[in-house]
Amino acid sequence: GLFTARTMPRAMSAASTLRTASTRERASTRRVPARARALPSSSSPRRRRLSITTSPGLRLDAASPRAPTRARAASDVVESSSAPLDPIGLNPDRAAVVNADPDAYSWTKQWYPVAVVDVLDETKPHPTTLLGIDLVVWKNGDGSWSVFEDKCPHRLAPLSEGRVESDGTLLCAYHAWRFDGDGKCTSMPQASSAEEEERIKANVRSCAFKRPSMVAQGLVWAWGEGGKDAEMEAAMTPPLFVPEIEGIGKSGRASCGGFRNHWQVRDLPYGWNAFFENAIDPAHAVVSHHTLVGSRYDDPAGFQCVVERPVTDAGGFRCAIDPAVPPFNSIGKYDAETSYDFQPPALLKIDWRHEGGRFLTSHYCVPTRPGWCRHFVVTIAQRRPEMGNKIREHRWFKLNLFTLTSPAWLTHVLGPTFLHQDMVLLHQQEKIIAQGDGQAMAQKWKDQVFTPSTADKMTIFFYKWFEKNGPIPWAPGTEQMPPIERDSSKLFDTYEMHTKYCTHCQGALRNTEIGMWATGAIAGAKLFWVGASVVFTAALLGSGDDASSSLDVFELASAVDGSVYGDFFSALSLGATSFFLWGFAQMFRTYPFSHSEDDIVMEGTAKIGLSNDGPSAYIDFVDSTLFKEKGGDHNRGCECSTCSPHFKDLIKSTMLARAKKSPAVVEEAEEERSIPVAR
């Protein structure tokens, strides 16, 4: 029933052949979209190029002689599956499966992350949703996590409303049927005799609807479908693991010579395709995330997309941006590279590389139901101190390094400051495109948008992939796209989207509210004491020999004991602290955002220098502390510049290559290009 990462096969070619045998015929007969036309290639008869229509009147044609070399490479996104695929960015096990049949893809025969182990309450069942089907995640008596479909086989009551009992079984709260970690019914109290109970329990229909599941890299994973062949197919299919995450302990230190921050998980009120359309779009970062990672007025810039791994159904695609514009570099100072790596059905890796280190951010986006997705994200930092400290001045380095030293609850509560900047746009955008129907989203997107810039290429690649392999096979009856949510209290409800199932944030919220009430109560008590002291002093002055005369305020102020003033200012500071804690506690419940208004949290981030390039004493201290020790051997499949043959020279960007050359060499190259050549 339960698999671990260590049991996954290392050589997947033979296994993947078995797995894909049943899907080859379906894949070979799939309709090729009319707007994707194969063009002849002059370089090889076995290659095919794709002509991509980005908008009316504009075509990105790989065969165009006027297009620059890098632009032509970006359009050459589909190759014949007869040639081995360059596995750059793919886990070695996954690369074997992709190479075995690049054109085979199934939404349901996949592993999906469904929960973060570290945030789950082990004493309760936890509901979640995958592809429109409700699931329940719970820890069984063997100490492992099980995943069932969220319905009791008796009368289909939700098991997530049940209880995890002390004997390690899951009890249905409707009629008290119990199930073990394998889904077998262990108790059915309505039976009239022990013999009848055993007979009922032996019936396969008494079993819970179990899904193959495993725990790896800090996540609970579930297979995309049930059925009699699910266990075998799941065992032969490697999940979308990230090798650099392997071997990370509680301290965050990884065997790959780096650190990992805490997993973040959150339900988002927009769909799977809206998430990836946004996440693979570098151009939006400094605009949508104004003040947090850059400036919407100064940092937008153009770039080309360099295809590092061409589009395949099974493997997705990988592109580098050339140059790596802000927030990955400053304009005109290009000494770092960035690649975007989409691996269906759920993974996007943003790989930022500098000669002094690397940040690998891994996003998992799981399609839960139309108009919603579950987002997981983690960042790995790998450092090369021997290459100097220039990397410390990069805003991308500073922002990510900050999360490495933050406790989990702080990382989680600050997450909406970034995510809600996108959410307020994406939630409405996909509904505008959908026009009330959540199906055929790729075709609707293509028919309505206007994408004239090379900055849109990766988004175009994604929707070409989605048009061929979509739509998402939602469970029957769940296909309808929900309407736009106009109530901001529901749209920005961080409690329902995260806090209610995160033990870290529940504890932090509880402690914050205790501190809020305690400081508020002390402040109130001190104010009462101050008031009582003033009244008592006034009464003493009024009872004197000259009681008939009016009481002078200045006389009263001078007569009040000096400690009363200290108590008064103490009450004010405690009251201010209580108010601050109240505001902070609200962030665990809701975090409304509007681009039309300035945000104090994001403005504060900019003020302390984390969102700007340049030196920072705080970052100098953190960097020196975290990376003072050399890490161990890197993991199999690590794609850092030390391990990967793809990044030995760290130069794939033309702008970075120019920066590495001396001014004389650059000037000579410019002169050579300007000399006319006779033909």
Summarize the structure in words.
This protein is α+β, with helices and mostly antiparallel strands. Helix 6 packs antiparallel against helix 11, helix 9 crosses helix 14 (503-542) and helix 10 (441-448) packs antiparallel against helix 11. The termini are far apart. The model is unreliable at 1-82 and 673-679 (pLDDT under 50).
Itemize the secondary structure elements and their pairings.
Blueprint: E1 2-4, H1 13-28, E2 37-39, E3 49-55, E4 58-60, H2 69-75, H3 92-100, E5 111-116, E6 126-130, E7 133-139, E8 145-149, E9 163-164, E10 170-171, E11 178-179, E12 185-187, H4 194-202, E13 210-211, E14 213-216, E15 219-223, H5 230-235, E16 258-260, E17 264-268, H6 272-279, H7 285-288, E18 304-312, E19 316-322, E20 336-343, E21 347-354, E22 357-369, E23 372-383, H8 395-404, H9 408-434, H10 441-448, H11 457-469, H12 488-491, H13 494-497, H14 503-542, H15 553-559, H16 562-587, H17 600-607, H18 617-626, H19 654-660, H20 663-674
Parallel strand pairs: 1-14
Antiparallel strand pairs: 2-3, 3-4, 5-15, 6-7, 7-8, 8-13, 9-10, 10-11, 11-12, 14-15, 16-23, 17-23, 18-19, 19-20, 20-21, 21-22, 22-23
